[in-house]
Model the fold of this input.
Amino acid sequence: MDSLHAIGFYVSAAISLGGGLLVAFLPGRGSRGLAVAVSGLGIVGLYASLSADFAGLIALVCYAGCALLIAAPQYRAVDAPVGFVWRQAGAVAAAGLFAVLAYAAFRGDFVHATFKGGEIGTAAIGQFLFAHDALATEAVGALVLVALAGATAAWRLRERGR
Amino acid sequence: MSFGLVSVLFVAVALVAVGAFVATWKRDLSAALAGLPLMFGGAGVAFAGAARFSAASDPRIFGQGVAALLAVAVLALVALGVGIAGRGTSR
Done:
């Protein structure tokens, strides 16, 4: 683990978490979509510093799509019938979740190992997806179908509104 | 300067917690959808970190595969959510 990877990891962590907090507090769909894009860029940087460049490339495309969907004009607001107290309780529960999981990570005892894989590992992942776990690849295909169906529904509603 | 699995898990946990905060704090359900990429990203980072620091002799690809699957899954969920919420008012 060289210093360049470590610096990349910490900078990417700061970008992803900062973007996540911006998602929480920025008003408006445009700025929220931009914050999702920034956070996604940080997550892609985390993947790159963890030698998972192939997953990072896929995440880059998917998070760009998420940001575009959130910032798109067909975005419609749906108000939740939940009161302020319950939302506040949910925020406190999120903080409690962080505390519990962080404590579990801190108290965990992990074996230190040397990573022998490459930076991208496209061949190994291709073999994993198409030879060993073809069913998982088909599940990904089903998810892409759901995404396309949702995007089509959003597009049709926008066209109907014109 | 270096980092290990504990640092990766801390960042992953923080991403999941921030995503849960966004999902619960936002009054607008469509805006709460923006918490999903953060939560799924945190889970993906944890999987990729476990694959990176795995004690196995050969490179563990499973974690990277799950991270890629989670990225596609969150795009599907956000697209579906935005599509379903298409009947509301523009904001």
About this structure: The CA atoms of residues 34 and 127 of chain A lie 35 Å apart. The mean pLDDT of chain A is 81.
